[in-house]
Amino acid sequence: MSVVRLRQAAKESVSGLPREFWWLWTSTLVNRLGGFVATFLAMYLTVNRGYSAMFAGLVGALHGLGGAVSAVVSGVLTDRLGRRPTLLVSQLSTAVTVAVLGFVQDPVAIAVVACLVGMTSNASRPAVQAMIADIVAPEDRVRAFSLNYWAINLGFAVSAAAAGLIARHGYLTLFLADAGMTLLCAVIVFIKLPESRPERHAATEGADGAADAPEPEVGLGTVLRDRRFMAVVALSYLIATIIQQAFVALPVAMGAEGLSSTDFGVAIATNGVLIVAVQIPVTRFIEHRDPAPLLVASALLTGAGFGLTAFAGSVGMYALAVTVWTLGEIINSPTQMGLVARLSPTHGRGRYQGMYTLSWSLASLTAPLVGGAVIDHFGADTLWAGSAVVGLVTATGYAALGRTLRGRPGAGGPGVGELGVGGSGVEGSSVGGSAVGESAAEGSGVGGSAAEGSCRP
């Protein structure tokens, strides 16, 4: 591809998005540039503090428990109170709890504060995702969410590499820097971002004199009854369980082999660097393709990458394994996030995004416990082999989900396989009939509207 075409592609990728989106994008980048603690928490506990892998897994699980609780609660608050208040409360409280975590010494206190950090930090995600869906036009949302995901990983790549070097001078510096950057993120939101929650309209009189029905309420029960959406949540949980091992089991395993925090930082930074380099071009390539085989391929690559970790003995081999599962993540994120947005009604975006975020939070809860226990009792190689098996199971689930969605097209519209990710079908915004997302107005195309950033710890 020529330089001129590359420049044109880059221009098309960033043009036409509203100013509010770019301020939200900036706050995301700032937040992730300071995201040191979650990445290095397991290594801090095992290498610096001398705790076991099981304890590190327990702390990681409590971090995930806090996130699981806040995912649903913040989703409801995002719809009821608004996106902006939820963001501000989350970011300010995260800055405080992360700073406190750097000072506590007692193991019980560490576990409790880690749970609070997980709760406060995860509370912002449904609000961010809903705000992007509010302020960006439907035809631009795949691109907007991909750019936000790109910012997440740009910040992650820089912070992962920098944190390994900073940790040499003391882990407390990491905690305070993380808190400071989160506080700066809150300042950006407070000054630059207005509230974006759509107004709910009451019953009105139509042109023929008949009263139009008010927009139906969307509760958590509505989300739970949406079978197709809950299937996406379940499959998201499985693939998230694999990916979460990179932030708990992987640093513990590398530390046990005598590798340093800097070595881990270099290996895991491969993930962020690769996403920064190829996420946007890949998204442009896959956004109009049949999502089912893409999701299957993403699960297979993710499982294979973690399975390959069993054969790693050097930083280079660990980086190669990270490269393989990162390719799966790159394909999975915009494809799966498109489905989430497609099935989310306008006035239930917070709840739907909260339930989706819950899948990652539950993975953050269970993956550290499983990973730590398996490493302690059976060894790291068993964990990596099991991850490969889970990837295969997830791929099978995606294949089955794809067949189900293709067989149930929206009335008068194309099915999922025909529309593909990023198609132009009518965005889902009504609730009624059976499950949300099954009415003719919503269509059943995967993708189309949006893709959100990966909900990492």
Strand order, biggest sheet? Answer: 1-2
Q: Which sequence of SSEs, written as H and E, runs from N to C?
A: HHHHHHHHHEEHHHHHHHHH
Query: What is the total number of structural domains?
Result: 1
CATH-assigned fold name:
Growth Hormone, Chain: A
Portion of residues within helices: over 70%
Commentary on this structure:
This protein is an all-alpha fold. The chain has one domain (18-197, 219-419): MFS general substrate transporter like domains (Growth Hormone, Chain: A), CATH 1.20.1250.20. Helix content is 72%, strand content 1%. The protein has a two-stranded antiparallel sheet with strand order 1-2. The two termini are 36 Å apart.
In short:
InterPro entries: MFS, MFS_dom, MFS_trans_sf, MFS_Transporters. Residues 416-457 are annotated as: Disordered. With 457 residues, the chain is mainly α.
Per-chain topology:
Blueprint: H1 3-14, H2 19-33, H3 37-48, H4 53-80, H5 83-101, H6 107-122, H7 124-135, H8 141-166, H9 171-192, E1 204-205, E2 211-212, H10 220-225, H11 227-244, H12 249-256, H13 261-286, H14 291-308, H15 315-342, H16 349-378, H17 380-406, H18 416-419
Antiparallel strand pairs: 1-2
Helix pairs in contact: 2-8, 2-9, 3-4, 3-12, 4-5, 4-6, 4-7, 4-16, 5-6, 5-7, 5-9, 7-16, 8-13, 8-15, 11-15, 11-16, 11-17, 13-15, 14-15, 14-17, 16-17
